[in-house]
Fold:
Amino acid sequence: MSLLPGKAAGRTDIARCRRGPVIVSSVASDAHTWNLVYLQLVIEELGYEVVNLGPCVPDDLLVQECRARLPAMVVISSVNGHGYQEGLRVVQRLRACPELRGIPMVIGGKLGITGGESSGHIDDLLSAGFDAVFDDGTAGIASFRRLLTALSPPEPMLEVAS
Amino acid sequence: MNFGDFVRRCHRAGKLVVQPRMGMSSPARMRAGLLATKNANATTVGTITLDSFTRNGDLASVERALRDGVGLNGYPIVHYDPDVTRAMLDGVMAADFPVQVRHGSARPLPIMKALAAAGLHATEGGPVSYCLPYGRTPLAESVRNWAACCAVLRDSVEGEPHVETFGGCMMGQLCPPSQLVALSVLEAMFFYQHGMRSISVSYAQQTSVAQDLEALAALRRLCAQLLPHARWHVVVYAYMGLYPRTPAGAMTLLGKAAELAVRSGSERLIVKTVAEAHRIPTIEENVSALEHAAAVAGGTVAHAPAREPDGGQVYAEAYTLVEAVLNCGSDIGAALSTAFRRGLLDVPYCVHPDNAGRTRSFIDTDGRLQWADIGSLPLSGVVGRRRSRSVTAADLMEALSHIQRVFDAEALEQANRRAL
Structure:
């Protein structure tokens, strides 16, 4: 559950991003949920609306949801050890869509089966299209929060009169 | 002998049956794991856990992994010819060592056909419990799939099939016990309606011994009332959430699960190992866990829990939830779908599109798992009236790691005392 300081690619001009929901998603083979629920609460607390696609999200569905919603950010989290392979695959499909090229996309969790990512894997994920890669561990979530805070601050949510 | 009959016979003889989670990609390794389970110093049944590609019906990935020599995280029963599995089990599976197939699939029909063809008869799952937590298969489709599975088990298994509900384990942690009990009973009723007669009902150890004992008493009481003609037993799962990282903490928590199983009159226990917080356990770690659980169980006395005349809080909530679902219609599968659509059942923190997602839970100062928000659950007259609490990310993380912290801290403190 975790996201550790990562390496950032600097591809996206974060300050110019438009306001939209943040999409939280797993990858196709990963059935874990708690990491996604936790991230949803973290992101909501920073004032964003979250669309949580949940576990076992097929590539097609993630691409379709991103194209339909044009999110402020795409956050992929995986802890079953297949995140490296599946993350590489799906981010290339996302970046192939012209309307998604400028949207910040990050990935984190337990991405390989050995514990601890090699810098080679991280570089692969960055060059495939992610803006940041967060490894499993305690400092990760703080780093992720800083990144999200750096996005243009969202407008305050409208209070619902009741 | 049928899996359920074996477990019930052991219980009458005063033995708790203990069972590992275990699945290897090669038949030789799977056989070695089953033999080690059988030969452990404990009353055991065997487990074949399937790999995650087979669970998702992705047989091409199974073939690719086996061809490339990449290990799978379980036994690919659909990929192997039934004769391969029969040979793997030959001389291992026996009347006094039945074997259960464990999978976690919302589309399990090919798995049911494969296990029946290989001479196996015991499995587990359920239309809700193997659908909502793990993916995006629509609930109504899962209900249809599991009805079809029951037909395959009825018609194709040699001897009598046994099926276990996984409904008492929803999400692993943070689902209040009353809803776990209700789902376990409702899935058992679904299986019964589809012709299963040998059934087990599950319940996963949560955060409070007293509340867990209440929940297991409620589960037995509801099964006695609602499944009078089934042959059923109760299986307890050692804690399924974030597990202690220290070996001593992990073993203490497993021991508590064994005590809970015996004290509640439960018949079977699924163990966890010292490796749980770190990786998939080895055969040896599984055997150690089985033997530790059996030793603790052997030293624990079963005693009838003090029965509150009204059954207690967990029973009152579980009864209300079950009744609300049964009022949705006489077809249990359709009633379950309707109940989730109306929010009469609603699993906290479950993000499946067919779950309302309006309920929240928290751990109170006594360690009991309580409702923070009941959403549309029909519990407003049953749960004490209180304001809904919002749950922050920090609250959630604290609740998720509560058991891990408590048991690791105790283990470290004991180690420090010994060192002084």
